[in-house]
Model the fold of this input.
Amino acid sequence: MGGYGDVQMIDENGIRVDGRTAEGIRPVEISAGVIPVADGSAEVIWGGNHVIAAVYGPMEAHPRKIQKQDRAVLDVRYNMAPFSTTDRIRPGFNRRSREISKVTAEALDSVVLTELYPRSKIRVEIEVITAEAGTRCAGITAASVALADAGIPMTDLVISVASGKINGVVVCDLNKEEDNYGEADLPMGVCANSGDIVFLQMDGDLSQDEFQTAWDYNMGAIAPVHEIMIEALKRSNGGEQ
Amino acid sequence: MKGLSVGRLGVEQMNDQNALGGRDGRGTRLVTPGAALGASEGRRIGHGILENDGQMIAVKLGRLIESDNEVSILPSHTRYTPRPGDLVIGVVEAVQSNLWFLDINAPFNALLPMSLGPGKAEFGGARNVLNVGYTVLCRIQEVDETHSSVVTMKGLGLRRIDSGIVEEIPPHLMQSLFASGDALKTLKDSSECRIILAENGRMWVNGTHTAMSDVISKLDQIRSMSRDISNLDSMVEVLQTEVQ
Done:
């Protein structure tokens, strides 16, 4: 979100630096069941992002002080590998990873039927192997597939996409340059079937019309990603007979 | 939450092979969480399905089973849910003065009170009888509404396990693979091992080193195929393969 208005990232025909149109998303590949020792897992390659999520549990919640008497606790840990970006990241948690862990847990908590497992814990580990803008969105999407793969009861699958503004134009699914030099960013988490919004953040300024356009772009990107998610889950679980 | 249950499927349902579209699950549909399954009117709602405004929604990943008037999901993966009377293999996770906490492969640890424990232990001496890491064969005594379970070691054959190995089998396969008892009998006969199959997806195997290795490799193969219930016939074949 550098806001360098003189960096041209979209031409007069609406074509972006990587050849996409304003509403186009980067190529998405999803695989489920990639970690055999986990109860559920998923790998998401979203453009230049490479994210792996693993789910363990439901299990006894330790320490006991984190237990909720009427529901399970979603213990989400988002972490970027030190080698995931061009500049080395200091290993361990930082303010950003804690914030993303928190919003991811809250987004997933909306769809997971946590009340079925009181006093227990569902551990979700999200590891970013390679980062290229939109890692929180890829992380939420990967975690959602991993939870389904683990057999955790949930009312819907969550898909997260971000739209933003570059050179005064609203575009969908920002890449690294657009994220660095763009003017605004609107990541959203949407339930694939019900269309409910479970996660929404905004960085930068958007007018009401721009916000609506970004919203529409995000909602439009849900269906194709949902198809890929379902295909991935079917592939790892035997598919149609 | 009407109609939703997280427990395992009933034995009758799992044994009804027609419900699976044949023993191997062919003809069934894989559904993902959130999938709309149509109107619920006049249909009984089974495992893994939620009813909302007269519509059925899948809440688990698995195969859709439509049997008579009931609709349910046979999950591709699930955790063991304890039921009173189940024979389970537990591992001691913590010890207090008068009780033990056991990991029984469920979302919640089970309690083994000293009064239901093995032999005679004095208050404060629980650790001398069963220490952390010990494996025991026990039975679920009771499960309360918050899923807390109490286990007992008072009963025929319930004891501490101090030999052999404990292997794991995905809990969702327990009924479909071992309900008839044929597969387990074949495995016992072909491997010449002593085998106890607990309902929490754990199997105790004791025998010669070669025989145990053979059983481990068979269970490895089953685990690798476990995600797809249509592999059921192949899994049975693996269990029935003679020891070389």
